[in-house]
Structure of Aldehyde dehydrogenase:
Amino acid sequence: MIRENEQQILDALHKDLAKPKFEAVLSELDIVFNEVYYAIANLKTWMQQEYVGKNMATRLDDCFVRREPLGVVLIIGAWNYPVQLLLIPLVGAIAAGNCVIIKPSEISGATANLMAELIPKYLSQDCYTVVQGGAEETKALLQNRFDHIFYTGSQRVARCILQAASVHLTPVTLELGGKCPCFIYGRVNITAAARRLAWSKFFNSGQSCVAPDYVLCSPATRDALLPALRQIMKDFYSTEPQNCPDLARIVTPQHWTHVMELLGRSNGKVVMGGEGNQEDKYIAPTVVVDVAEDDALMQEEIFGPILPILTVESLEEGIDFINRKEKPLALYVFSDESSVVNTVLNKTSSGGFCSNDGILHMTLPSLPFGGVGASGWGSYHGRWGFETFSHRRGCMLVTFMLFITNKKKTHLISMQCSTPTKHCPKV
């Protein structure tokens, strides 16, 4: 489907988000290809019965875990990656043998319309159905009984979905977000760190649930980081970012207004960017310093191309800062010191963790992708998606072995009996 309709998909993504071709191919097409190929290569192994350890009482029995489809599942996609976040969970659901109701986001309307047109051409409509619509249609959809609901989006909508799912006690996987920290500490290659930080932050114009939401570093590191970021921003987006074809746009004028209002309420100092154009849904890649913990930019996920930089005096202070917040979907550490990386890894909790780069951990299908706490419930990608959409059925196949019990111990009789006789007493 994707191979045969690649240009149509790229055109729809550009219409919705002005996604540059490189970003669209990397984050919407290739990542789905990898997921499909990985599932095909490994599905036979995933489906095999998993035999488990036994005790003396069950040593002659077959004891195993069998993966079975859950039934009918609902997948609700998101607008920021409207192909990837719809099709990757669909791969896991299909691999596990489920029927699926597929609900693309109406906010990325061009891509949603295209998915609704293409999916029925390639998948049986008896098993896979696309439902379009907005909030009211989604509410009506959630009144039905499903065997599992998979949702990607905001915490606000997730609460509504949980409330609806509770009526039927339907299990739910939530892929949410939050404020993903980027902690730069100790010895570090500033130029490389700045390049990877800028790429992962401003990719898709900051509209990624795993984008670095803010930076923590020492004052000295900040002073070295800023000129490096300034040069890299010119390299990436030229001196006129609005005219650069490699910068995506904010999805709607309403989202543009919300992000610009966050910036307007900030007491920090804008040192790069800050410009915007509502008609074009453009916000310049922006860096803000002198940001306090209680600043407006630190109260919610920014979900736009604005990067606040906060300073800490020590490794412990940075870790304490991270741990005061909700557990993030991803946590990034930039340091050439393995002791720094391992200390942050051991003393924090997050859905995913990546050192010396950003967002790339989610592209590897052999790693689980998902949140923890407020950033999400459950995980998927690769085998983890197969497991999410499977029921692990514990099975014990018992033979007709008889036990004679006396006051002290149980004896296993190694004779199989089909009916009780005088030689084979009924027990």
Observations:
- The chain has a mean pLDDT of 94.
- DSSP finds twelve helices and 22 strands in the chain.
- The first strand starts at residue 50 and ends at 51.
